[in-house]
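Entry type: protein chain
Record version: 2
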Amino acid sequence: MRDQFLISDRLLLARFAHKHGHLSIIVVYAPTDPSEDHNKDNFYNQLSAATQSIPPRDILIVLGDFNASSGTYDNVGGVLIYRLVLGPQTITQIV
């Protein structure tokens, strides 16, 4: 590991050197939807600034928990969207 930066309690940036250059990894833990808007805005502003700070020749990987949710109630044009993405199992059937 070449460098590591704790950007916030929800963002970590690690930079690794390899034989072809550098690999930058940003690990995230996004605020949940019920969180206050200013917390979510602050998180995404910090994430945007972190991704823009990566040198253009670096390989960039962003990974972590973006707090996505799924369900069976999204219906667009008569097609249940989750079936196109998740298949027949959804979080409401797993829990």
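Comment: Residues 37-52 form the longest helix (16 residues).
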